[in-house]
């Protein structure tokens, strides 16, 4: 669910690759490799938690539209209620709308995908006035609302950089 698992694999590979390259070229101590688990395991846990919730959200949608009933005639009866202008139809329709709203996190969960902020000992935060915490809409819902931050350990906002050759843009971390 959320396609987060494949994105997480790419993020994990990138995280490990730059650390291995820095160690290989003598730019970092081997201890930087130990940060992989402490950084990525909380991300993996959040992704799995979100994916499991997405399955639960979908089961509410399926239930509200009658997909989980045992027989075709039961499914047809649910659809009749769902499309009718009766009190039962209104109740069924309200449950369906509520389920759809809950499931919408699956399609708009940008912060769970982009909002990681690492806090290992290798992240220099000594000169920061306060510890990192979500703010703005990210504090309101740390699954949906991604807000770019430049706090040490947070993902840098995506920015295209210009070159002297028009049409040849590049991203800062592509070569990592």
TrEMBL record:
The organism's place on the tree of life at top rank: Eukaryota
Keyword line: FAD, Flavoprotein, Oxidoreductase
Leader peptide range in chain numbering: none
Coiled-coil region(s): none
Presence of keyword Acetylation: no
GO molecular function: FAD binding; oxidoreductase activity, acting on paired donors, with incorporation or reduction of molecular oxygen, NAD(P)H as one donor, and incorporation of one atom of oxygen
Gene3D superfamilies: 3.40.30.120, FAD/NAD(P)-binding domain
Classification via InterPro entries: FAD-bd (IPR002938), FAD/NAD-bd_sf (IPR036188), RIFMO-like (IPR050641)
Record's protein name: FAD-binding domain-containing protein
Native species: Penicillium brasilianum
Biological classification of the source: Eukaryota, Fungi, Dikarya, Ascomycota, Pezizomycotina
